[in-house]
Amino acid sequence: MTTNNFQQLLDEDERSISDFQRNQIDQIGGGIWRSLHMFRFIGAVFQIYLPQFAQTIIGSTTDSGTSSETVSYQSPPNEDLWTNIKPLGPSNLRDEPSR
Amino acid sequence: MKDIEVIRTYLETQASLCFSLLYNRYSTKIFSKCISLLKNEALAQDATQEIFMKVFLNLSRFKEQSKFSTWVYSITYNYCIDYLRRKKKISALFSDELENAPDIIDEVPDEELLQMEVKKLKVVLDEIPEGDKAILLMKYQDDMSIKDISQVLEKSESAVKMKIKRAKAKAQKTKLELFKEIN
Q1: What is the rounded (10 degree) CA torsion for B91, B94, B96, B97?
Q2: Minimal Cβ distance to B56: which of A6, A22, A36
Q3: Per residue in B65-83, pLDDT tens?
Q4: Is the pLDDT confidence value at A98 over 80?
Q5: Using a CB-CB distance cutoff of 8 angstroms, which residues of chain A are in contact with residue B27?
Q6: Per-residue CA distances from B28 to A13, A22, B22 (Å)
Q7: Residue B138 carries which DSSP code?
Q8: Minimal C-alpha gap between A5 and chain B (Å)
Q9: ipTM for the complex?
Q10: A34 touching B, CB under 8 A?
Q11: B55 touches B69 (CB < 8 A)
Q12: pLDDT tens readout for residues B51-61
């Protein structure tokens, strides 16, 4: 197969890659392979456990009927601040400028 | 074993041998292309990694409508052009975007470029805008069709034809400027 000068240029560029660079490219390949393995593993875990997890969540809300059965409201620690607010008295009002 | 056979086997078995075969066939080519376009070794390494991750994660989407090499090179150019655009924060990657080139350009015959010595070609390609270089590499190095190039660049086919024409003119002009004493 004949190659043109553009393709020869790519061949030359490939040939000019040093051993050190080749070694680095190999290491990149190793990293990609490990990442792909990891993705497959995570994918498999999700495939197995996600339906169970989803069932757990959906099941817990539908079984109990309302969420109020399990969640109780607790007033925040500073809530009594609101009940202790004193009415705004005349002493707190700014004097109107005299006309 | 042909690329497509390796891909099918890989998709069925996820065998590391198939991964290695494909990676070894294309990794140095992709790395060379990246270093030629990005002009930085560390960036080229990162690019090679990202491109192969994309290739292998999307391998099941490869529809065999084109050669595997064309598909891989498309992803490569896409990545590099996108990176260069982001880096420059402007879309002026091509000579016609950098200057107000006249609409009418004399068509440079393919032979003018294809008969250039490899060393001169390398110098010329390094001088012209990266976008022009990329489009010439797509057309003449990787034999990509106008349709494939238009998909990579997200331009119409007629726009791609015009860009190729301008890139050829730019390369020819650069060659004449750089090597006029020698010629």
Answers
A1: 10
A2: A36
A3: 889 999 999 999 999 999 9
A4: no
A5: 25, 28-29
A6: 9, 8, 11
A7: I
A8: 6
A9: 0.84
A10: no
A11: no
A12: 999 999 999 99
